[in-house]
Amino acid sequence: MTPMQKTGPDAALSAAPASKRLRPGRFLRRWPALSLGLVLLALACVMAVFAPLLATHDPQALDATQRLKPPSAEAWFGTDMMGRDVYSRVIYGARVSLVVGFGVAVLATAAGMAIGLVAGFSRLLDSIIMRIMDGLMAIPSILLAIAFMAMLGSSVVNVIVAVTISEIPRVARLVRSTVLSLREQTYVEAAITSGASTLRIIWRHILPNAMPPVLVQATYICASAMVIEAILSFIGAGTPPDIPSWGNIMTEGRALWQVKPHIVAFPAVVLSLTVLAVNLVGDGLRDMLDPRRKS
Amino acid sequence: MIKYILQRLLATVPVVVIVALIVFSLLFLTPGDPAAVMAGDQATPEQIAQIRESLGLDQPFLPRLLSWFGAVLQGDLGTSIFTGQPVTKMILERIGPTFSLMLVTLVFAVIVAVPVGVIAAYRHNTLLDNAIMAAAVLGFSVPVFVLGYLLAWLLASNAQLLPVQGYRPLSDGVGPWLRHLVLPVLTVSGVYIALIARITRTTMLEVLSQDYIRTARAKGASERAVLFVHALRNASVQVVTVVGLGVALLIGGAVVTETVFSIPGLGRLTVDAILQRDYPVIQGIILLFSFVYVLVNLLVDLSYVLFDPRIRY
């Protein structure tokens, strides 16, 4: 906030455009962690989108003469047990991580919001829905995802489905509690008594208030989905071996990590940095959207 | 008090039943025929049908659910498709390493994370606080198996300080038991410490701005007494709640870490069961862990009365 604050009805009008103007330098100084997160995340997106241009080899090409080579000018991150180029595999692995991360974040948020809204507005369905959500939340999310993967079989789409189902209850609970507390607000009561339809109340009053925390939650879900995908792939229940993902590249290096650490190390670093990026964006958004933290 | 405990116990019954229902339905919906797997490649269709009948697999959903649930209540979790052994027996054989790992991690993480969170709150907005919070974000971001390899590489591979593989039961002596647990415990506790330290800091920041803290200081209480007696006691309800919820991370972490360090526990059993598509074993382990998780959080609820005398039942 500026030190000289205007008050009165024109304050909002004159202040709004000034604070909306984004100057990169100022943004960077005010939100250093968020900026770092956004830059790292942008890099991961570039990796995923331009993978064919950035990769130096076909990520699937086997070469029996080039097995387990250490990093060199030819193979930047070395090669794995089957002679495949680890650098190119790591580049392509960004696709799986980001698709799973963003896919789960969007799907779990959408489904969780729908379920939370229904539970918040329908007393009848509320107790049934929330008991099911309690049951789902009582199963540790990695185990629930493992159970779904065992049922569905390994594929990227199934990973998205499995992780989405284990993340839905968190969003549903958040949205439901927001709905319940907003329904008690005088302005919502006023809207109800003045005959506004439920849809209009959701659109005009509930969603604008529920969005900021849900958005922050969505970023944490994205980070958690990336970690769970890597864990599932690492233990052999996630992305199938013919699609390179950071988790299953590490699985291939697992038996040999003490003698050939490069196969495990490179995907591990890239995975950690990407999850870190998403978490930094989440923390930054939380601080930005929390009115109590504005000084 | 007893009335409250009974009430809370009763409230967890529907959760446990729903968990069991979800876990059972997953197995029921799973494609593939366990009877065919158990019978082997040379089996005739009659033999497969016989196995199916003896296991009750030819029954519809509801009778199967009820007989399964009845068996679970008596501690019978079914039979492994792969080994033909009772799942309960397989789980009991593997439970020691996993529970050792979880218990030691829990104690270690609380001992480290709570003081770190208190100090971060006390030194709010200083370099120390920022460093602790940055470490916490890192702790959240580094996946548990990545941390495992990093620690093994730093402490065991290069320096040869600690064993990187395996497990010794407590009956072999406390020394070997602890030495084999050091790396796995450090690995699993990473995320857990980050979580507890963060909630301790946030709650302590709120508590430290309260009037009674100023009163405690005004009456001359030492800073240490203010922090660890007056403030931490009032923050403890939130901290204990998160310690309980974080047990989910502990369970997930143990499953993965056992694979990294070749520990013959429930996590390894889970991973092997996934690779062998041994659904009754997967089902039994998930049920057991969920039950432990619900139980821990029930105990957390009941413990509030110890930490906050204002809560009376």
From TrEMBL, chain A:
It is a multi-pass membrane protein. The keyword Transmembrane applies. The chain crosses the membrane at residues 31-55, 96-121, 142-165, 215-237, 263-285. Residues 94-282 form the ABC transmembrane type-1 domain. GO terms for cellular component: plasma membrane. InterPro entries: BP-dependent_transpt_permease, MetI-like, MetI-like_sf, OppC_N. It comes from the Bacteria. Keywords: Cell membrane, Membrane, Transmembrane, Transmembrane helix, Transport. PROSITE patterns: ABC_TM1. GO terms for biological process: transmembrane transport. It is found in: Cell membrane. The keyword Transmembrane helix applies. Pfam families: BPD_transp_1 (PF00528), OppC_N (PF12911). Belongs to the binding-protein-dependent transport system permease family. PANTHER family: ABC TRANSPORTER PERMEASE PROTEIN (PTHR43386:SF6), OLIGOPEPTIDE TRANSPORT SYSTEM PERMEASE PROTEIN APPC (PTHR43386). This is Peptide/nickel transport system permease protein. It comes from Paracoccus solventivorans.
TrEMBL record, chain B:
The keyword Cytoplasm does not apply. Residues 95-304 form the ABC transmembrane type-1 domain. CDD domains: TM_PBP2. It comes from the Bacteria. It is a multi-pass membrane protein. Belongs to the binding-protein-dependent transport system permease family. This is Peptide/nickel transport system permease protein. It comes from Paracoccus solventivorans.
